[in-house]
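Give me structure tokens for this 415-residue protein.
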Amino acid sequence: MNTHKTISKLAIATTLGLIAVLAQAGPQDQFTKYKVGLTIGRHTATCIADTGGTTTISFADAKRMGFLDANGDPEFPADRTQRMGGTGGAVVTCHVFNNIDIEVQPRNADGTPNGPKRTIKVTVFVPKKPSLQTGANDAEKARKTNSVPTKIGANVCGATIDGYKLDMDDKATNNPLKNERSTGWRKIGNGGGGGSGDNGTNGADRRAPVQEDDNYEDEFLFEPRMPDQPIINGEIPIETVQLNLGPISCVGQQAAQRLGIIPVDLEILDFENHQLLFLGGILDTLPDQNNPLVLPFGEALVQIPTLEGDLIPLQPVRFFILPEGNPQSVVLGGNGLVPPEVSFWLDSDLDQILWDFDPPCLADFNGDGAVNTLDVLAFLNAWSAGDESADINGDGEVNTLDVIEFLNAWTTGCG
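Here you go.
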């Protein structure tokens, strides 16, 4: 810990000098989600990618996907019952279904497909109908059932699926409060290809260790933690830093005071973020679509220590300040983990989070650092073979549209 604090003092002046530049690019965005398509059977839903927690299916989607009948009862026997969510008594009772085949479809920021669907077998949680929830009245029971969103959790985000990892990309816009966020495939090992390319080491420039529960499929709560803790405003959090790839970073009032995160204004916590915090056991207040929670927020400089021995300096990250929460814990979300123009992914096989600060350029198809006719030849060879690396537009097919898109990219070159 002392070593990190010493490094921080040496790096803090340089990092602060970058704030003016970095702040223009964000991300201050706590609301734009990393979205994927999730298909079970014949039914597809758009859902949130979240490196923390479990894979869950909302009550409404569970009816469409064949888990529940019209009355909200299981269409086939669940493997067990599990309670999840909240930091106190506000918990949701769920059916747990093991070994469910789900198809994952990465999405571009505009919602279009980014690469092919890939299938993985996982455990999913489905909320029980309101009459089977605990609560003071019918309205509270219904809120518990409706507090569960459709999202993929750590058992998907950190997994290797057909030789690929799901990665998250963040692009700045002219509005520092609004980023373009997308998901894609990253090929693991040699060979290139995939939604974000590969250079034999998966393209990672920086890595940081995470602590994970090896048996998280059996747990109602799974949040990766950083053993080498980030430095926040020059201070190291006392105990834990939890990670989640909902976009939201947050901290309890006591921890905010110790870390010098000063409230600057109030903001509405949107319903989806509220669901993520509640199910992650971070916030005990039940989500209510009709009565959104209004919270103070502040900003803090975050520096993440890496296995390479340096610190990743991040622009001022926006933190919601929670009325409750562990006074010795900080939750670092996508807005604090994924800098603009950077790809990020969780690797549960390595117990690491990884960053690619230099995403590959489409025009440099063979990855030799130059854009020339060799790239055209390499692309046409891949295209003729029907290799998925030639699926330039990410629609899951290799056809003439990919030739047009590649040639446009090749003409533009790499900036």
